[in-house]
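Problem statement: downstream parser choked on a complex file, so we are re-checking the raw output for the nicotinamide-adenine-dinucleotide run. The parser issue turned out to be on our end (a line-ending mismatch), but while we're here, posting the original submission so the record is complete.
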Amino acid sequence: MSRLSGKVAIITGAAQGMGAAHAKAFVEQGAKVVLTDLNEEKGNAFASELGENAIFVKQNVTSEEDWANVIKKAEEAFGPINVLVNNAGISMAKNMLEMSLDEYMKIVNINQVSVFLGMKAVAASMMKAGGGSIVNISSINGLVGGAVGYTDTKFAVRGMSKAAALNLAPMGIRVNSVHPGVIATPMIMQEDSKAAIEEFAKHIPLKRVSQPEEVSQLVVFLASDESSYSTGSEFVVDGGITA
Ligand code: NAD
């Protein structure tokens, strides 16, 4: 039997990168998946590739109204929701002294406020489903320092996951955070940063960056009943960087 058969899942930021890899893995494991993203063209094209068990809904994860629309469309298409993967995010490698308040608030809204909105929006549907699993994508920068803005939001996602796990446990909803290291996605593999990433990889204990699919295996585990006793925990997938 497939690891996610019978599950209905929402994955944000699923038009490319890790979100797309998770969506593919979920469909392969028998889930029905709602992919969301700002990028409508890419998201629609990828959902069509995945077949009849995937649909795309355009969403800005910072909008409460968009969250209500995503939940409505997901329930209409597939029924009550069992899994939410809060994956959409942006990076901003800037020195704090050069960062404007607008830039700072932008990353806080996209990486952190979105997780709060998503968990609140999905809870009622998960209760209808008899429980659920929320997987919040943080980073190793939710464990150790990096750029201001990015690091703060990823620490917040880790803390919020623990606090929300306590709020939602009585309803049978589990909440965990995932902390990837350096993953080969469009976010980091830009033409001008590729060489620096390859150089950095030499210092990773496993001597390479990870492919998105290697993170998907962990996300599938957390979404599935295989992780039925895990909640309020952090799961690191970083090739040993933080060891
Ligand atoms: P990516 O840039 O390749 O993909 C992110 C997706 O999110 C894009 O499709 C983008 O359109 C979407 N998005 C951005 N803002 C949005 C918004 N406001 N509303 C809806 N969608 C929006 O990134 P990725 O590397 O796949 O990263 C996915 C997650 O993993 C992020 O939360 C990121 O911080 C985290 N992460 C990435 C790495 C890495 O090395 N790539 C490491 C640790 C954590």
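For whoever reads this later: The chain has a mean pLDDT of 97.
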